[in-house]
Amino acid sequence: MIAVTQNSNIPSITTDQRREVDRAMMEGHGIALAKMMENAGRELAHLARSRCRGGNHKGKRVAVLAGTEGSGGGGLMCAGRLNNWGANVTVWLSSPTERLTYVPRHQLSSLDRQGVPIYRPAE
After folding, report:
1. Parallel/antiparallel/unpaired status of strands 3-4 and 11-12
2. Do the Cβ atoms of 112 and 118 come closer than 8 Å?
3. How far lies 64's CA from each of 19, 33, 82, 103, 107, in Å?
4. What does the H/E/C string look like for 82-116?
5. In angstroms, rounded to a whole number, what is the distance separating the alpha carbons of residues 17 and 21?
6. Rounded Cα distance, 25 and 95, in Å
7. Can you tell me whether residue 10 is helix, strand or coil?
8. Across the 123 residues of the chain, what is the mean pLDDT of every consecutive 10-residue run?
9. How far apart are CA 65 and CA 119, in angstroms?
10. Of the candidates 25, 60, 100, 122, which lies 20 to 30 Å from 19 by C-alpha distance?
């Protein structure tokens, strides 16, 4: 069941519900977690571009806040796409790198190679 927050009409789900959706997509439909994160990051980047800065991110400053699990991976994928589109992206991690799961850690490595500034909390 999707819950609607009290002051918003935007649906939200709990962490356990999100994990169950991920499990169902992987086991029931054969969609890899990395692919789901890639799709989420791409759609988030398109949404950010369409709703912010008049659709033009070139040279604009963008901060991406990323967690440790799937949503963090989507956020990091989004950061990479916005960077490739010419935005001046900075990433802020909520947890030390060691707490990232495999896919977000892989994407973080890619962002490092692209020269995207990444702020990590103390280990």
Report:
1. antiparallel
2. yes
3. 22, 21, 10, 17, 13
4. HHHCCCEEEEEECCCHHHCCHHHHHHHHHHHHHCC
5. 6
6. 26
7. coil
8. 51 82 89 85 88 77 82 88 93 87 86 94 75
9. 10
10. 122
Count CB neighbours of 69 within 10 A.
20
66 three-class SS: strand
What would the two tokens of residue 14 be?
A: 């709990």
Instruction: Report residue 86 as tokens.
Output: 């010419």
Which residue do the tokens 């604009």 mark? Answer: 60
Question: Model-level pTM?
Answer: 0.78
Residue reference for tokens 């789901």: 36
Distances (CA, A) of 34 to 49, 100, 114: 22, 13, 19
Amino acid at 88: N
